[in-house]
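Q&A log
Question type: sequence-to-structure
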Amino acid sequence: MKVFKLIFKNALRHKLRSTLTILGIAVAVFSFGLIRTIIDAWYVGVEASAQNRLVTRSAVSLIMPLPLSYREQLAKIPGVQRVANANWFGGIYQDPKNFFASFAVDPDYLTMYPEFVVPPDQMEQYLKERNACIVGRKIATKFGWKLGQTVQLTGTIFPGDWDFTIRGIYHGAEKGTDETAFIFRWDYLNERSRERNPEFADYVGWYMVQIAGNADGAAISQTIDTQFKNSFAETLTETERAFQQSFVAMSGTIILAMRVISIVVILIILLVLANTIAMAARERMSEYAVLKTLGFRPVHVMGLIGGESMLIAILGFVAGAVFSIFAIRSIGDFITENIGNFFPIFELKNQTLVMAFGASIVVGIVAAFFPAWRAVKMKISDGLRQIG
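Response status: OK
Response body:
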């Protein structure tokens, strides 16, 4: 108990220096947490992907459409349980800044996504009306939308004003589920396209293919692409995870830079704490010599230096973690409100806090190692000669 008392007193002997060191560590922990949260937000689509869902799109480009006739052929492939087609709509609500993910899908599409929870009565009503839509809880809250309300989107890819009646509001089955999507019926899009833009009719943006749980996704993907090889619309089929990963890869350099910065932040913590512990140990060499004279063993000296380092590191982590929780929550609310279509999920994960805590512990140990080693190897006579 006396050793712990000495550790606590030593850590607070120079209150200003210790406080500044703790604040420095806290800022570094916050910076690390913010960077990792941004990276996690970038990968939210990848993490939410399912292994039993494949995406079949044009082999040329995602913007190139596929014929509607492909659907029946895809459904006949062994191992395929369900096929659904979809189009990216790209509509805006009232103002160009009100841009969010909007999709035209057929009914089987939502069946493939159990993570989108829609009350049965709302789903039933949605299936009855051609211009019905289902919206995510977050954008419904943002714009104050209610069930039964008619909203008008202005198409960007499909020109004109489009009226929709909100018949369902979905929420995520899990905390990380995107709740910012606007989903409506593909047959409504196709019907209007025949009237206004016949060249868009009977074409889809991509197909979602749900496969059996024990099916070989790679083999089925190859079968699909081989079937349409040398056709006027060749396909590229990949897992949903790979499909989402392709979008993230476009920003690969930025993400790599952020990962490097997160490592640099850890090094900053190490330098700040190591400098403080080295200064404290150098000032107390004569005290350590006296302790050794009184019979304190090397393990006690190492415990004093290491304990002080660990205490400061942990206090810095706690301060940084508490600040991060509240600050990142506020930042997340701002992002959801303004650019939620890019980062629908912006939350500090427990895994990030665990990583920051682990890094703080490692830094505390490393920062104390050399001063402790020097104090243990020091001769008592040399230590007693040192002043301050």
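Response note: Residues 298-339 form the longest helix (42 residues).
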